[in-house]
Arrestin C-terminal-like domain-containing protein
Amino acid sequence: MLNVHPMHFTQSPEFRIQLENDHLILHGNSEESAGTILRGSVLFNCQDKTRVKSIKLKFSGMTSVSWCEGRKTNQKVFKAKRTIIEKELIFLDIKKKHHLCQGQYKWDFEIPLPGNLPETIHHELGKVQYQLKAYCDRPKFSKDYMDECSIRLSRHLLASSVQYTQEVEISNVWENKVAYNISIPSKIYSPNKIIPVSFDLLPLAPNLKIESVVCSLKEYVTCATSTHQKTTSRVLNFLRDDHFTLDPVTGRFTKTQVLIVPGQRDNRLHFDMRGELIEIQHTLKFTVSLENADGHISELKAAIPMVIAPSLPEDEDDILPPYQENRRSIYYDPETLAHMIAMGEVMPCSRSSPPSLSSITSGSSIGCEDDVIPTRWMGMDISTVPSYATALLASNIPCASSCSLPTYESITVY
């Protein structure tokens, strides 16, 4: 009897995937992100003439969870697995016979990825992972080739996401004993960053003392199947303060404590994310121990939800300046300046007129004696102003008699 064994794909340095970047970043949350593009090439170095049935590329994203509950004698296993995304590119179709001559071959590819994909995560209860595999399928009794690589997907929030960058505070009156206000300057933080926590406690009951204040940063991981879910939590960092003293002037306990977000490698920190089977959240928890007049201890507990991300919202350098700042670089006439001073929109100064255009372009210091150089378009109908392209052609004409518009660089004050 003839035994037929299936051919297995093997890795070879002659057939490989070359990526532009194996770490892709989604900008914005899942609702506002435009997605990203995975770019790269499949390389095949043929040492001699080679017969090939097909060459294809597969991109896939998978999420899975698995955990056990119960005692060893009666354990129950919960599992779930989902395909998040799956795409395939065919470079050489299997329907045709292909004979590749000796030489190097390269197939470029671009795979668009939607902005609502969950980020890569590896946890003991579950994971979200993305893989790229290239296959070179050859005729029978010939060695097939395969190469694979992992793709890491992260998410960076935009600076325009004001809901994450504004101050977060909680305030209430607890048991008619104390009025509290606890706040942090922002809702989002990244690894190794400092979280300043401000406490403002007003005792309402007589002879009330603060015995201690404990603040802890907790991480919650929730995994779910179609019938069951499991949530685990752990403390990433905490602080305890036993020295809250009453301010005799204000009659309040006020203090700002500092809590540090641990590094990702030091404490196996996971970032906030929400997937189909896995969700990760972070919360600041507070416990205020109060010593009552009769000596017994009461505990006030509160919490502030927060977000831990790979980086803080993107730098404000990418944001257009507000109107109040932008207008300072715009050249305006004396009448406009006088009107703005009268309306209180700008502060008056010793200068009676704006700086001259020549003093700005020459880089000299701006003095109060500078005169305004009238331009031809002042007082004219806007329809007679030349186009910007036309103005550039006339830029070599002196400003006093020029019909051209000034360039942006010449009128900007730094």
